[in-house]
Write a structure and sequence with these properties.
Residues 146-177 form a coiled coil. This protein is mainly α. Helices cover 65% and strands 8% of the residues. The protein folds into 3 domains: 3-103, Orthogonal Bundle (Arc Repressor Mutant, subunit A); 112-298, no CATH class; 356-451. It is flat, with a radius of gyration of 46 Å.
Length: 452
């Protein structure tokens, strides 16, 4: 069928409400409620048309003889043995069922997470062959599960759209409603968005977990293909075919969930827009409070500017008192202004002082060597402490002085070893109040031992 035929036959596929549309819905409901038989007569049709005319206060309605030709294309048929009786076609029932399911979607009160888990779950060891994978998740076998998820998302979107409309209606209510009642109604509706947001998050987690498990199954077929290529060349072609089929199934399901993610993104945007309504409610309360405050101020001004007389309440001649709010204009200007153009910056090339450079490099080299010597003595002191279990600070400093001839090195090593005792719980320091003098140096210190 071409697109042109869709346009030309649209009125036959979906007749307008008073050209048979309402009639088909009424016949469907009466048959379902067993008010009329499945095969009905023209008398029952005329009664339904009269009911439609009365219910919608119509002056006239198209009679049965004028609309039956269009309805006999797709919606009605005559009984083969009793031509005065008619029945609804499967197409007519499907169209009405589609409208009913759109308005009364059975998935509105059903968690999306449960639908995903019921339709897309792989248990450990459940799938071992490609036939089992095709029976469970093949393109044909999984159409029902896909439709369940799609219908569920559509119901979820419709539900949130209705809730969003309810929030707008609450915010448009008259001022006579108290803030408490508005908050209560707003909370009941807004709770839906929170519940649905949590449901969507859990459903996405279940979906991601399923795709990960399905990818593991595909990898299993790939590893089997590799093993057969090494050890069993007879079955390698079948293993390759199984892996390709598994890959096609995974790609199909992944593309389906990509479209699901797009729909979920739209639904999440609806939830985010609903959170903006909470801000509008806060602004509405702020505006009401400001208005009441202004009314109180006006009431106080009226009481202060009025007096009671035998003839009634009289206001002063200056009521309402008004004054213009003003602020003196201040002229800001710079006190000083430099009219001369700025002087250009001049770059001066400074000649290199080779003597100074050489001297500084020598100082740096000397300091680096000094630090290396200190580190070597610290490592040596730690080795002595590890091997002998104790270390005498005065003996250590005497040894350093005799070899390095530098008091600052001896002092730095002693300080580093003292700090070492603070960083390690199994090392402690013993200070005896006995003065020890270093040989050949005018320096005295307490007798100190580091023990382990």
């Amino acid at each position: 069928m071409t697109n042109k035929e869709l346009y030309t036959k649209y009125d036959l596929l979906l007749p307008s409400k008073f050209d048979g549309g309402y009639l088909i819905i009424a016949l469907y409901e009466k048959i379902k409620n067993r008010e009329i038989e499945e095969y009905f007569t023209q008398k029952e049709i005329n009664e339904i048309l009269s009911d439609i005319k009365a219910e919608f206060n119509l002056d006239s309605i198209r009679p049965w003889n004028n609309i039956k030709d269009n309805l006999f294309h797709y919606f009605l048929r005559s009984h083969p043995d009793e031509p005065w009786k008619y029945y609804l076609t499967d197409y007519a029932k499907n169209v009405v069922d589609l409208m009913v399911s759109k308005l009364e979607n059975p998935y509105k009160n059903h968690p999306l997470k449960k639908s995903v888990q019921d339709s897309f779950t792989i248990r450990h060891g459940e799938i071992n062959t490609i036939e089992e994978l095709e029976r469970k998740f093949g393109r044909i076998f999984i159409q029902g599960s896909k439709k369940i998820i799609t219908d569920h998302l559509e119901a979820l979107e419709d539900e949130l759209r209705e809730a969003y409309k309810e929030l707008n209606d609450i915010l448009r209510k008259e001022d006579e409603h108290s803030a408490t009642s508005l908050v209560r109604e707003f909370t009941v509706v807004f709770r839906k968005f929170g519940e649905r947001a949590e449901d969507i998050t859990e459903a996405i987690i279940s979906k991601d977990q399923f795709l990960g498990n399905l990818l593991n199954v595909v990898d299993h077929f790939y590893r089997k293909m590799e093993d057969d290529g090494k050890f069993d060349t007879v079955n390698v072609q079948k293993s390759k075919s199984d892996w390709e089929k598994a890959q096609e199934i995974y790609t199909d399901i992944r593309e389906f969930f990509t479209s699901v993610d797009s729909k979920v993104y739209i639904i999440r945007r609806q939830i985010n827009h609903a959170s903006e309504k909470l801000t509008e409610l806060q602004e509405q309360f702020s505006s009401r409070a400001f208005f009441r405050l202004q009314i109180k101020k006006l009431h106080r001004t009226m009481l202060e500017s009025s007096r009671y007389t035998p003839d009634g309440v009289r206001f002063g001649s200056n009521f309402p008192l008004k004054q213009l709010i003003y602020e003196p204009v201040r002229m800001l200007y710079p006190r000083y202004y430099e009219f001369e153009p700025p002087k250009p910056n001049i770059i001066v090339n400074v000649e290199v002082d080779e003597t100074y450079e050489r001297s500084e490099k020598q100082k740096i080299t000397k300091e680096i060597n000094r630090q290396q010597i200190i580190n070597q003595w610290v490592d040596k002191a730690k080795d002595i402490l590890e091997s002998k279990g104790q270390l005498s600070i005065d003996e250590l400093m005497n040894s350093i002085m005799d070899e390095e001839k530098d008091l600052s090195i001896a002092y730095q090593v002693a300080s580093r070893m003292t700090a070492y005792t603070s960083e390690n719980n199994d090392v402690f320091i013993d200070v005896e109040q006995k003065i020890i003098s270093l040989s050949q140096h005018n320096l005295s210190l307490w007798k100190t031992k580091i023990m382990k």
